TrEMBL record:
Database matches in InterPro entries: AAA+_ATPase, ABC_transporter-like_ATP-bd, P-loop_NTPase
Organism domain of life: Bacteria
The protein, known as: ATP-binding cassette domain-containing protein
Keyword Hydrolase: no
Taxonomic classification: Bacteria, Bacillati, Bacillota, Bacilli, Bacillales
Domain ABC transporter: 2-231
UniProt family annotation: Belongs to the ABC transporter superfamily.
Gene3D superfamilies given in the database record: P-loop containing nucleotide triphosphate hydrolases (3.40.50.300)
Length: 331
């Protein structure tokens, strides 16, 4: 659905982005993360055609944004961080205005406006002036304009920024629902939002993609060892000796336990594999062989927050361009 091929945007006095390369398939909801100034907004503006890349190409459903900009843009819905609303218009008047801009046939406009009003929960507010809406409802109207023309690709920049917890929950559910019929690229600073909504994560830092992975597979992609928190009922010394003797085990370490738990009841351990292989089955069979009941076995992994900080705070030298950057006067 989306192909970003070796795209760079170079500025004379700014970092820009360099050699970004990724693609998205139909039906994916992809979280796009990065610290301030990393290049998220620049990348999304290039994808949507608001900026021209210095180098590289962007294809929307096979259409080049450079060669067929109008046709490519018709396949995109865009919700910037601040929705492009006209506060003096009513919701229905604004959506009709957007329908005209998006070349929705006149005969289909009434039906299409009605559909997005129902989908976004705006029924009963059609005649309400946008200025009088809460921020949550303004965000809904912003989403409505983005999907009015039935785009294949939906780009959203910080869609829950500034909303209260109830509004955030509602907008997240709307995004999940939209993901059933649209490919979604979602930029956000709220990391739990990615875990709650997205089935893939892109992290950009200093203008370059530093991670592209499924949320559940990020640890392995970063070379993280397979780690298990294990509670076993039985004598500590024997348990530690048996586990340490397994060829797949790299280390066994005792963890602090609840003080109310008797020393003789169980032992709480951190067990780490020698490589990234899953060690849970080996642990189960060894403890079963020795007759020691496993009370708890839980895979431990870095949180998305930990991974984000690791990738975006490590000192990295960004390669300098081999040629003088091309400076564009973008409107």
């Amino acid at each position: 659905m989306l192909e970003v091929k070796q795209v760079s945007k170079l500025y004379e006095n700014q970092r820009g982005v360099r050699s970004i390369d990724f693609s998205m398939s139909r039906g994916e909801i992809v979280g796009f993360l990065g610290p301030n100034g990393a290049g998220k907004t620049t990348t999304m503006r290039m994808i949507t055609g608001y900026l021209n890349p210095t180098k590289g190409s962007i294809l929307i459903d096979g259409l080049s944004m450079a060669d067929h900009p109008r046709k490519a843009r018709r396949k995109i819905g865009y919700l910037p961080e601040t929705p492009p609303l006209y506060p003096e218009l009513t919701i229905s008047a604004y959506l009709k205005f957007v329908a005209n801009l998006r070349d929705v046939p006149v005969r289909d406009q009434k039906q299409r406006v009605g559909e997005v009003i129902e989908k976004l929960g705006l029924q009963g507010r059609e005649k309400q002036v946008i200025r009088s809406l809460s921020k949550g409802y303004k965000q809904r109207v912003g989403l409505a304009q983005a999907i009015l023309h039935k785009p294949d690709l939906l780009i959203m920049d910080e869609p829950t920024s500034g909303l209260d917890p109830k509004q955030i929950i509602e907008i997240r559910q709307l995004i999940r629902d939209l993901g059933e019929n649209h490919t979604v690229l979602l930029s956000t600073h709220i990391l739990p939002e990615v875990n709650a909504i997205c089935n893939r994560v892109l992290i950009i830092n200093q203008g370059q993609i530093v991670l592209d992975e499924h949320p559940d597979q990020i640890g392995g992609a970063m070379g993280e060892s397979f780690e298990v928190r294990l509670e076993v009922k039985g004598p500590k010394d024997d348990i530690v000796r048996e586990l340490s003797g397994l060829p797949v085990i790299g280390s066994v370490k005792e963890l602090e336990r609840d003080q109310s738990m008797s020393e003789s009841e169980s032992v709480l351990l951190q067990v780490v594999s020698k490589d990234r292989s899953d060690i849970r089955e080996a642990l189960f069979y060894k403890m079963a062989e020795r007759g020691y009941p496993i009370l708890e076995m839980k895979k431990e992994s870095l949180s998305l927050e930990d991974i984000f900080l690791k990738l975006t705070t490590d000192e990295k030298k960004v390669e300098q361009p081999d040629e003088e950057p091309e400076v564009e006067a973008d409107a």
